[in-house]
Amino acid sequence: MAEKRDYYEVLGVAKTATADEIKSAYRKLAMKYHPDRNPGDKVAEEKFKEAAEAYDVLHDAEKRQRYDQFGHKAFEGGAGGGYGAGGMSMDDIFSMFGDLFGGRGGGGFEDFFGGGRANRREDPNAPQRGDDMTFRLDIDFDEAVFGSERTIDITLPAQCDECGGTGAAKGSRRTTCPTCHGTGAVISGGGFFQIRQSCPRCGGEGTIIEKPCRKCRGTGHVTKPQHIALKIPQGVDSGSRLRLTGKGGGGVRGGEPGDLYVLIGVRESEIFNRQGLDLGVDVPVSPITAALGGTVDVPTPDGMAQLKLPAGTPNGKVFRLRGKGVKSFRGGVGDLAARIVFEVPVSLGKHQRELLEQFQASVDSASFPQAQDFARRARTFFAHKEKLEAKKG
Asked: First CA to last CA across the chain, in angstroms?
């Protein structure tokens, strides 16, 4: 039988190494040589065992002191607690790994290699909180802006009133699962490398039901229609999520219910377009009013507001009305952008046409600077075109 290597040599640390240095060194070796990463590699498996044995001794202050004094002889003849002195149980190994990687079931060594122990509840018979549920609700634009009250009709899982959420029929009870003996997990594999998985018979609960409840068929849940009052605060928008505490799925075995999250969808407005708390609106205006100046009515969430147009207001001009947007239930209010859109008169009578013709005859091109600028740019474009064509010729 090969002579054991020095534990400090195995881990690659000095005899003066600190506890943290020993832990760090072993963690690297454990990750490198773990059988899950080296399937079928007997050399890697032996190195993994050797490193685990060294760490088991050197991370324990008392064992380390005995080893420093007597070497490997300190654990011969049943005097020690290392692998060479009779081996360790899987629970001992998991405890050691838990200490190294952050605790049992805490996202450490077992989770990394798929052990499964972290996925089992410590007490499968304890009260279990209900699931959180999500419900989508589409509302009108004005409900979103001003707030409203609604009643949600939804079917949710609720604790079975026949068995009290235990899943067991009256006169029956939960018993320890004979497959996993109440642990909620089974172990497969052999030797040093073993895998823990949720028990297939009890689903990781650790218990089974002798006679399931007829009403809930052993689940502890039944579905029931619910009518839930909902207050929609002003200022919500599409994508807003409202939380109703305790209105979700029912718990089992006396556990509290989960929460209900209402996901809001807002239908488009026939008047406004919305960007956050800001609103936009197109205001149709007569070109005559825009030319002469005047007052136009602009709709806002607070009612109609009067907007004074200066003489010569161009088509598409945007006026910002501060504080006339959406009010938020969290505080704050947006603005409203009113865009002027010319509306050309239609269905003109004979006299009206005559008046417009007289007006057209009375003005010259200087009255339309934008048209003049447009004509200038067009002339420049065609002049450039003629030069290019001349060069080609």
From this structure: 100
CA distances from 44 to 49, 88, 102 (A): 9, 20, 24
DSSP, collapsed to helix, strand or coil, labels residue 83 as: helix
Q: If you search the block for the tokens 């825009």, which residue do you land on?
A: 290
**What is 7-88's CATH topology?**
Helix Hairpins (1.10.287)
Distance of CA 33 to the CA centre of its chain: 36
| H or E element at residue 92 | helix 90-101
Inform me whether the pLDDT recorded for 193 exceeds 60.
no
User: What does the alpha-carbon distance between residue 147 and residue 95 come to, in Å, rounded to a whole number?
Assistant: 55
Global pTM exceeds 0.90: no
Quote the CA–CA distance of 303 and 305 in Å, as a whole number. Answer: 6
8 A C-beta contact, residue 249 and residue 227: no
Instruction: Give the pLDDT band (50/70/90) at residue 108.
Output: very low
Residue 89 has pLDDT above 60, yes or no: no
CATH classification number, 273-342, choose in 2.40.110.10, 2.170.130.10, 2.60.260.20, 3.90.1150.10: 2.60.260.20
